[in-house]
Each structure stands twice: as structure tokens, then as C-alpha cells.
Amino acid sequence: MVPPANILFLLLLPVAAAQMTPGSCSGCGPLSLPLLAGLVAADAIVSLLIVVVVFVCARLRSRPPQEDDKIYINMPGRG
């Protein structure tokens, strides 16, 4: 559920956007192609890094405990 403060923010966002005049910020034009390509590449690298970290953590967690040198006769999978 969204907290009440966030709901108020979401409701007031269109009002604030309507108050802005076009061209009120300097340098807010379209991004250059090299900058856009760099941002897309950085986003892909960060996303890939997150996937790798989650995969490694999940793999480490699912690893069975270390085997000991004991022989378990009546325990399938342990001897």
C-alpha cells in the first residue's frame, strides 16, 4: 500500500507540472547521441551486475553443507 504522503505527492505532481512554463530550464534539450548511448550502456552494465550478484547469492545459499567423512548407512544421499 502506498503511504498517504506519497499519494498526496502523486496527486500534486500534475499541478506542479502545469505550473512550469516551457523553456524555463536551460540546457533541457534532447540528449546527444553519445551521452544517450553511454547512459544505456551504463544501465545495461548495472542491470547485469545486479543479476550476477543475485545469481551468485542464490547459488551459494542452495549449496549443500560440506560433506563429512562419516558413513551414514540408513540415510539416503549421505553415504
UniProtKB/TrEMBL annotation:
Question: Where does the chain cross the membrane?
Answer: 35-58
Main subcellular location: membrane
Q: Which InterPro entries match?
A: HCST
Q: Which UniProt keywords apply?
A: Disulfide bond, Glycoprotein, Membrane, Phosphoprotein, Signal, Transmembrane, Transmembrane helix
- State the organism's lineage: Eukaryota, Metazoa, Chordata, Craniata, Vertebrata
GO BP:
positive regulation of phosphatidylinositol 3-kinase/protein kinase B signal transduction; regulation of immune response
The record's Pfam families line, in alphabetical order, gives: DAP10
Name the chain's protein: Hematopoietic cell signal transducer
* Source species, domain of life: Eukaryota
Subcellular locations according to the entry? Membrane
Q: Where is the signal peptide?
A: 1-18
According to its UniProt record, which protein family does this protein belong to? Answer: Belongs to the DAP10 family.
Tell me yes or no: is Disulfide bond among this UniProt entry's keywords.
yes
GO MF terms held by the record? phosphatidylinositol 3-kinase binding; signaling receptor binding
What Gene Ontology cellular component terms go with this record? Answer: membrane
Q: How is the protein disposed in the membrane?
A: Single-pass type I membrane protein
